[in-house]
């Protein structure tokens, strides 16, 4: 569950120098928030609150927001209009595409005398016969319903026959609430089955799905001797293997093509499915750090390494008794990104953190070696005098 935290609110208060006590507007949309909390304590001066496209099932903890003028809860899981009586300044309420089915709950907005705009498009209650007439008659302070202006003549007509409309609305509400109760039971049942794992088929259901099959294998139509129990186990393992062989694409297609009602439960299930898929993808993309490359083995053997994948040329200058390494580093690379280390038996060059190491054909004198960049090609040239045999000249 994603919770509203103080840090989350402060990050969205940059325009107010991250000061939340005097904050007048905050946007917390598309955060997967599942509960409204703390806002009414931290942001008493709030005038505009955006909470659209979350997973909020209930309007709560906003009664202290006396200055709130606009509340956007579109694309959430709200089923009841409630707990807004304390929002004395509320002028606009957006509940587009939620799950409000108890239309009579709009009457709780009578206390919000400044309310001018209400959006209920995409809620089950908008399908009720007499929906608009009932809302217009119940909330005389409204100027717009679902973006359409309420004229004087419509308001007069809405009051006519209101008792009959109210009766029909109550009946439709009861039908809807019974339907929702069965949807919740179905969701709980499916959730329980998912936790227990796939249900094992009974023999009778196997017969129904596979006419003529009774759980035994035959080699002769007249043979009625049952096969030993281990064959049933083998068969079960085969079925499991077939199931596990379903590709992830098939499983994904099966999830999205499975018919289901659009309910708060199905929306939560879809969200959690996408969340699990995202986390699985992130786990796959996490790269395991490579083991450090061996430069010198435990027994002292020096390895040749070319991590930057550079071309090079190693020559021996007999006239000057030197060994020359021409390393083709990138022409425009800054010399500060290279580090050279010459040892008696090998030369090591670090290029942007990647190591080039080469074993030399003869011992050299590190203290007399030089490293220069070619002004023409940009190559790094190491000139390493050989160690004289016998320890020096006579």
UniProtKB/TrEMBL annotation:
Pfam families: CS_DNAAF11_C (PF23602), LRR_9 (PF14580)
Domain U2A'/phosphoprotein 32 family A C-terminal per the UniProt entry, residue ranges: 128-146
Name of this protein: Leucine-rich repeat-containing protein 6
GO annotation, cellular component aspect: cilium; cytoplasm
Keywords: Cell projection, Cilium, Coiled coil, Cytoplasm, Leucine-rich repeat, Repeat
Compartment(s) of residence: Cell projection, Cilium; Cytoplasm
Protein's organism: Salmo salar
The family this protein is said to belong to: Belongs to the tilB family.
UniProt keyword Hydrolase, yes or no: no
Alphabetical list of InterPro entries matching this protein: CS_DNAAF11_C (IPR056496), Leu-rich_rpt (IPR001611), LRR_dom_sf (IPR032675), U2A'_phosphoprotein32A_C (IPR003603)
GO biological process, one term: outer dynein arm assembly
Residue ranges of the region described as Disordered: 176-301
Compositional bias segments (type: Basic and acidic residues): 176-204, 266-285
Superkingdom field: Eukaryota
Lineage: Eukaryota, Metazoa, Chordata, Craniata, Vertebrata
PROSITE patterns cross-referenced by the UniProt entry: LRR (PS51450)
